[in-house]
Amino acid sequence: MAQRIKVPILILTGFLGSGKTSLLAQWLRAPEFSGAMVIVNELGEVGLDDRLVETSSDAPLLLENGCACCAASEDLNATLERLFWRRLHRTIAPFSWVLIETTGIADPQPIIASLQGHALISERYEVAGVVTTFDTRRGPSQLLRHPECESQLAHASAIVLTKADLATAQEMDHARAAIRSVRPHASIMTSASSALPAAAIVAALHEAGPEAHVCTPACHDGHHHHHDHDHAHDHAHHSSDVTSAFAPLVAPIAYAALAEALEAVLVRHEQAILRVKGTARSAADGAIEIIQAMPGEELARLPLAARVEDRPVGMTFIAQGVSASAIAADFLGHLGLTATLSENTIGAHAHG
Prior knowledge:
Shape: globular
Number of strands: 13
Structural class: alpha/beta
CATH class of the largest domain: Alpha Beta
CATH topology of the largest domain: Rossmann fold
Oligomer: single chain
Largest sheet: 7 strands, parallel
C-alpha cells in the first residue's frame, strides 16, 4: 500500500509586532509556497492581519475568537478538518502547504499538541516546523516580561531575527545572546526590511527535521506540571494583565490628526502598549487605510486593497498593566471623540 502523503503545516509565531505578517506576505509570493492555504489567528475585536497577506489559493482564513493555543484551538482543528474534506470533495483547489500565523501571545506548545492529538489531522497533515520571529531590538526585554516568548523560542525549528535594519551591532549581539539563553543550538536567520527568502525557510525546516519542534509526552507532562503550580490550568503560558480594546472611527479623519493622537498615546503609555493596529477612513478621499503602530517606531500606513468595507473602522489597542480601554479612550479624547468601549482580557477563556 502506497504511503499517504501528508500536507505540511508551518506554524509561524513570534511576539506582538515582531514582523510575522510582513514575512508571511513575502513568502506567499514565492514559488515554494505557491498554492498554500493560510490561517491567520488574531487578537482584538476586528481582524486585520489576514488583509495584509495575499495567497494564490483561497483568501486567508481568519480565526478571531481568541488565541489558537487557548479558546480558539477547537476552531483551528475544525478549520483544518473542514479544509481536508473540501479538498477531498474538490470544492476548493488542492493546496501544497498550510501556513498558520498565530497571535503574538500564542504559546505554540498547546497548538502542536492539539494538532498531533487530533486523529484526522495527525493522519492527513504533518507539522513541518515552527518558525519564530524575534524582534532584534525589543525581543530581549519581551523575553524577560512575557512567558510566551520563551515558549515560542523553545519550540522553534528556526528563529528569524527581524528588523535587523533598525538595530545596532550591539543590539544584534544582545538579541542573539537572548535567543541562545533559551535555545543554544537553534538555527538563527536574519531579516532586514521584512525580507527573507522563502527558500531559506524551507531549507531551514528541512535541516532542522521534525524533532526540532515535536512535543513529546514528556514535554507535555512537564508543561502540565508547571501550570498545575503556577496557573491552575493545563494549557498555555500567557502573560497576565493583557487586555485589548477597540476604538471606533466612524467618520473620515485627517491622517495628520490621527497620527498626532496615536503618537501622543504611544508616548504616554509607552511601557504598557504592546501593539496598535486598525483602519481609518481618509478625510481626503474617503479611502480606507491600514494603520499599525508600536512605541518607538514610525507609524506604518498602507492602503486597504480595493474591496467593500465589511468590518468596523477603528483602532485596536493591546496593552499590559494599563487598561486597554483607558488607552483607547485617551486616544479618542485626543480626537475630540467619545465612545462606549468594551475590553477583552487576553487568555480569559483559558484561565477562567
